[in-house]
Amino acid sequence: MKYSNAYNVLPDNIVKIIQEYVNGEYLYIPRREEEQKKWGENSGSRSSLKRRNEEIYLRYIRGASILDLSQKFYLSDKSIRRIIGQQKKIMVNTNTE
């Protein structure tokens, strides 16, 4: 996150109003709701995990065991089962549309 001097981006009268509430402190101004990004969109983590989860499900339906998948992907059995359940729901929703 980059900091900007308020005097460089806001009119003087607005800076003075803000100073009445937060004089000299840092103030975070969030993005507008319609411009907010979901977790992992900037870094690519979201798409990377999506591909990983799809691969786990594909290997599972091709016969890989939960134990094999948990060892291959360094995840707990519980996490593998959760991913498989989520991917099944995604596949069902995709096929019914």
UniProtKB/TrEMBL annotation:
Where is the secretion signal located? Answer: none
The chain's coiled-coil residues are none
Q: Where are the transmembrane segments?
A: none
**Superkingdom of source:** Bacteria
* Official protein name in the record: Mor transcription activator domain-containing protein
Origin organism is Clostridium folliculivorans
Upper classification of the source organism reads: Bacteria, Bacillati, Bacillota, Clostridia, Eubacteriales
